[in-house]
Amino acid sequence: MIRRVVAYADGDDLAASRDFYVGVLGFQVAMEDPVLGVTSPTNPTAQVLVPPRGMENPPPRFGVDLGDPDAVDAAHAEAVRRGLRVVYPLTTEPWGVRRFFVEDPSGTVVNVLAHLS
User: Fold this and answer.
1) How far is 28 from 14, CA to CA, in rounded Å?
2) Phi, psi dihedrals of residue 28, rounded to the nearest 5°
3) What is the four-CA torsion angle of 32, 73, 86, 97, rounded to 10 degrees?
4) Cβ-based neighbour number of residue 35 at 10 Å
5) Average pLDDT estimate for 36-53
6) Residues contacting residue 63 through CB under 8 Å, at least 6 positions apart
7) Distances from the Cα of 63 to the Cα of 15, 24, 114, angstroms
8) Which of 38, 50, 48, 47 is nearest to 13 (CA)?
9) Residue 54 buriedness (CB in 10 A; 0-12 / 13-18 / 19+)
10) What is the pTM of this model?
């Protein structure tokens, strides 16, 4: 089940990005480490992540939260079965997500993830 799709923005100046998304657009800060994450105060699934430039190589264009780490494992197995290019290995991150990056058929890098319970 797709829980949410998360947009990514470039993080050249995280303080300026924070000020823009909070002060101009009305988001609220949900996290600041390891990336700046902002959410809508009325719809918490509407989110933007701002990773520092160079944090992830290659940087994903957006993330798909599958809601369950087992669903991430299943999506990874299916991507490998189909011969898709996995550009970041299946990993449990120290900040509490299970994820991998995969290229879609047109070369767009997608972060497939789920938060650990």
Assistant:
1) 14
2) -120, 150
3) 10
4) 17
5) 93
6) 5, 6, 8, 49, 99, 110, 111, 112, 113
7) 22, 23, 10
8) 50
9) exposed
10) 0.86
Backbone angles phi, psi at 81, to 5 degrees: -60, -35
User: Which two tokens mark 113?
Assistant: 């993830």
Structural domains of the chain, with CATH:
7-54 (3.10.180.10), 56-117 (3.10.180.10)
pLDDT, tens digit, 9 for 90 and up, residues 27-40: 999 999 889 999 99
Rounded CA gap, 95 and 92, in Å? 8
Considering Cα of 105, then 12, then 29, then 35, what sign does the dihedral take?
A: positive
According to the model, what pLDDT value does residue 57 have? 85
**Distance in angstroms (rounded) separating the CA atoms of residues 7 and 61:** 7
CA–CA separation, 61 vs 31, rounded Å?
19
